[in-house]
Design goal:
The complex is a heterodimer.
Chain A lengths: L1 H11 L9 E4 L2 H6 L1 H14 L4 E3 L8 H5 L5 H18 L3 E4 L2 H16 L1 H15 L8 E4 H7 L1 H6 L15 E5 L2 H4 L15 H8 L3 E2 L14 H4 L4 H15 L6 E4 L3 H17 L12 E3 H8 L17 H7 L30
Parallel strand pairs in A: 1-2, 1-3, 3-4, 5-6, 5-7, 7-8
Helix pairs in contact in A: 3-15, 5-7, 6-7, 8-11, 13-14
Chain B lengths: L2 H7 L2 H6 L8 H5 L1 H5 L4 H9 L3 H8 L12 H5 L6 H14 L7 H4 L1 H15 L17 H9 L1 H7 L17 H14 L1 H18 L4 H10 L14
Helix pairs in contact in B: 5-8, 10-13, 10-14
The chains are: A alpha/beta, B mainly alpha.
The structure holds iron/sulfur cluster (2 copies).
One iron/sulfur cluster (SF4) binds next to helix 3, helix 4, helix 7 and helix 8 of chain B.
Chain lengths: 356, 236
C-alpha cells in the first residue's frame, strides 16, 4: 500500500520534457562565473546530440535577481519576461529553456500568477506593446537547462569516456546533489521529482555511475538569499547557511557536489574558501575542499572534454582530487593558459585552502 | 479594514501568499533566515492576518522584513498554502513605496542594491556582470576570481564566451536597441519611478545622517551593527 502511494506521488512529479526545438535564455550568474558551462551545454546538445536550440542575440536578463532583491516592481519583472516570450514567439519556438533556476522560478511564478489573474496578463501585454511594440504567445513548456540534460542523460552515458567511479577500486563516487530552492520549492510539480523526490541531478549522477548521498541538510538553502549576498554587510547569513550544509554532509565524505542553480556552485565553492581562511576548516582530504561542479561541467567530464576547456580552473576549490580519482587525463601545466596557449599568469593561492 | 492592510491586498504576491494562517510555525521551522537572524515569519504572517495596522506599520519600518532570503522554502511546507516569503515581498514593496525602508539599517540597503542591479540591467542587459563586479567589494570571490577580473578578455575567450563582442554567446554586448527596450519597459511599468523614489528617500536619509550620497551608499553596503543575529547582543 505504502509503496503504491509513493508510486502515485512519484508519477505526479514526472515531467514530459519535449525532446527538441528550444529557445534558449542565458543566466546573469552562470555566464559570469561559469561561462564554459553555457558554451558546453549548447555544444553537447547541438553538436553531439543533434538537438535544435536557438539563441537570440537580443535576449537579456529576466530581471529575476533585481526582482528578488526588491529593486523593481513586479510588473517590470513581468514585462521583461514578456519580452523574452515575444522573442521566442518571433523566432517560431514554443519551448523555452533557461540556464538559471532564479529565471526558471520567475517564469513559472509569472505564468502561474497570470493563470490565476488573467487581467494582469492582459495589462502586461498592453505594457509590452506600448514599450516595445511586441506581442507574444506563452511558452507551451518551460524547462531548466538541467531538465534537458536529465532527459539526455542516457544518451550522454552511452558516449561516456569516464564514469563517476573510483578508477582504482571500481567503487561509485559519493555525490552530493543540490537542486537549488527555486527549482521546485515554489511549484513542486514543475521540477522533475517535485520537492519531495527531486531527481533531476541524482538521475544524472546515477546514470553516470555515481552514488548519491542523502544527508540531513540536503534540501537546505545554499545561503544565497539575494540581498543577503549582494550586500556585503549581510554575507554572514550566506556563509552561515553554507556552513550548516557542509557540517551536515562532512561525515558522509562526499567526493563531489553537483549543482543545478548557477548561484549555488559559486556559494558552495567560495564559502568553502572563506570558511577555510577564517576558521582553518576544510571539508576535503588533505586541506582541500570538496569540488563543486555544475551539471554541464559534470556532463563534460563524463564525455571526456578537457577540464580546462570546461572552465574548472576558475573554481576556487581545485577539481584535481576528483579528476584523479576518476582517472581523467589532464595537463596541469595548461590549467591557466589563455587561448592558443597564451600565458596569462596565474591566480594567487589561498593561505589555508590547498588548491592544486 | 485598515489603510495599510488595504494597500497590501493590492499586491498580487499578497493575494497569492496569504490565505489562512493557523499559526503553526512550520514556516519558521524550515526558514534559513530564522535560524540565524532574529526573524520569525509566523509572527509576520500573524500580524498581517490580524490586520493589526500598528503592527503592520512597525513591520514596514523594521529590520525584520529585510531578513528574509526569498528562498521560498516556506511555500513548500506551509500546510495552508501560504507563502510567508511572498507576504514579505509585498511588505517590502509597500515599505519602499511609502519611504519607510530608510527607517531601518537593513532597509537602507535598498539604495546600494537598486543602484547596482538596475544599473546593470539598463546599461549591460544583465543583473550581474563582470564589468561591474569589483573584487574589493567581493573578496569572497577568491584569488582565482581576482585573476579572472584582471584578465577578463583572455579568460572569457578561453571559456568560449563572447565577452566584448556583438552577436550570440555568454557575456556578449547587448545591442543598444535592446537596452532601449528595457528602458522603455522600466518607464512604462513603474521601474524608473521606483528607482527615482528610492533615490529621493535615500538622499533625504543621507542628509539626515550627515553623509554625501556616495558615503551613504558605501556605508549602507558595508556596515552591519550588532544585534541582527540570534547569537549576539544588540549594540553598534
Ligand atoms: S506555515 Fe503557514 S500556517 Fe503555519 S505559521 Fe507559517 S504561514 Fe501560518
Ligand atoms: S522565503 Fe523568507 S520566510 Fe520563507 S523560508 Fe525563505 S527566508 Fe524564510
Amino acid at each position: 500500500m505504502i509503496y503504491q502511494g509513493k508510486q502515485k506521488i512519484w508519477s505526479d512529479y514526472q515531467k514530459e520534457i519535449p525532446d527538441d526545438h528550444w529557445f534558449y535564455v542565458r543566466s546573469c550568474i552562470r555566464q559570469s562565473f561559469f561561462p564554459a558551462s553555457e558554451y558546453y551545454f549548447l555544444k553537447i546538445c547541438r553538436d553531439m546530440l543533434g538537438r535544435d536550440i536557438y539563441e537570440s542575440a537580443h535576449h537579456t536578463t529576466c530581471a529575476g535577481i533585481a526582482y528578488h532583491c526588491d529593486t523593481i516592481p513586479q510588473e517590470t519583472a513581468m514585462t521583461v519576461v514578456a519580452r523574452q516570450f515575444a522573442l521566442m514567439t518571433e523566432a517560431g519556438y514554443k519551448n523555452l529553456v533557461t540556464s538559471c533556476i532564479t529565471s526558471f522560478g520567475n517564469y513559472c511564478e509569472i505564468l502561474e500568477t497570470w493563470r490565476e489573474f488573467p487581467e494582469l496578463e492582459a495589462r502586461i501585454r498592453e505594457k509590452l506593446w506600448k514599450a516595445c511594440r511586441r506581442e507574444f504567445e506563452k511558452p507551451e513548456y518551460i524547462a531548466h537547462a538541467s531538465d534537458l540534460v536529465y532527459k539526455l542523460r542516457d544518451e550522454i552515458a552511452s558516449r561516456a569516456k569516464y564514469r563517476l567511479v573510483d578508477a582504482a577500486s571500481g567503487e561509485p563516487l559519493r555525490v552530493v546533489e543540490h537542486i537549488g530552492c527555486h527549482y521546485s520549492k515554489m511549484f513542486p510539480h514543475k521540477g522533475v521529482g517535485g520537492a519531495e523526490y527531486p531527481c533531476v541531478l541524482s538521475g544524472m549522477a546515477e546514470a553516470w555511475g555515481g552514488k548519491v548521498i542523502d544527508y540531513p541538510e540536503r534540501r537546505h538553502c545554499c545561503g544565497f538569499g539575494f540581498r543577503q549576498y549582494f550586500v556585503k554587510a549581510n554575507r554572514g547569513y550566506s556563509v552561515s547557511n553554507t556552513h550548516k550544509k557542509f557540517e551536515s554532509m562532512e561525515p558522509y565524505h562526499p567526493d563531489m557536489i553537483i549543482t543545478n542553480c548557477p548561484g549555488c556552485p559559486y556559494f558552495l565553492d567560495r564559502w568553502q574558501y572563506v570558511i577555510a581562511e577564517q576558521e582553518g576548516k576544510t571539508y576535503g582530504k588533505g586541506g582541500r575542499g570538496i569540488p563543486v561542479l555544475t551539471y554541464e561541467e559534470l556532463a563534460g567530464i563524463v564525455l571526456g572534454i578537457d577540464p580546462w576547456d570546461l572552465g574548472l580552473q576558475i573554481h576556487q576549490v581545485g577539481p584535481e582530487p576528483l579528476l584523479d580519482k576518476m582517472g581523467v587525463e589532464y595537463d596541469p601545466s595548461r590549467k591557466y593558459l589563455g587561448l592558443d596557449e597564451k600565458d596569462i599568469l596565474k591566480p594567487g593561492l589561498p593561505t589555508v585552502l590547498k588548491c592544486c | 479594514m485598515g489603510k495599510l492592510y488595504d494597500e497590501l491586498t493590492e499586491d498580487y504576491r499578497f493575494k497569492e501568499g496569504l490565505k489562512t494562517c493557523i499559526n503553526c510555525g512550520t514556516c519558521t521551522a524550515i526558514c534559513p533566515a530564522a535560524e540565524f537572524y532574529r526573524y520569525d515569519p509566523r509572527k509576520i504572517v500573524d500580524t498581517v492576518q490580524r490586520r493589526d495596522e500598528e503592527g503592520i506599520l512597525e513591520l514596514l519600518k523594521s529590520e525584520t522584513i529585510w531578513y528574509c532570503g526569498e528562498c521560498m522554502s516556506c511555500v513548500t511546507r506551509c500546510p495552508r498554502g501560504n507563502g510567508p516569503g511572498l507576504v514579505v515581498m509585498a511588505l517590502r514593496n509597500l515599505s519602499t513605496k511609502l519611504g519607510y525602508f530608510t527607517e531601518s539599517e537593513k532597509g537602507r540597503q535598498l539604495y546600494p542594491l537598486t543602484k547596482a542591479l538596475t544599473g546593470n540591467i539598463l546599461n549591460l542587459g544583465y543583473c550581474v556582470h563582470p564589468d561591474t563586479f569589483v573584487f574589493r567589494d567581493h573578496p569572497e570571490s577568491g584569488p582565482v576570481f581576482e585573476w579572472v577580473l584582471e584578465h577578463k578578455q583572455d579568460v572569457y575567450d578561453r571559456m568560449g564566451a563572447a565577452y566584448g563582442r556583438q552577436g550570440e554567446g555568454a557575456l556578449r554586448i547587448i545591442p543598444q536597441e535592446d537596452l532601449d527596450e528595457l528602458k522603455a519597459i522600466f518607464d512604462e511599468t513603474g521601474g524608473t519611478e521606483r528607482i527615482e523614489l528610492v533615490e529621493k528617500f535615500s538622499e533625504k536619509k543621507a542628509a539626515e545622517m550627515g553623509m554625501t550620497i556616495e558615503e551613504y551608499r558605501k556605508y549602507t553596503f558595508e556596515h552591519c551593527s550588532r544585534g541582527h543575529f540570534n547569537n549576539e547582543e544588540a549594540g553598534i
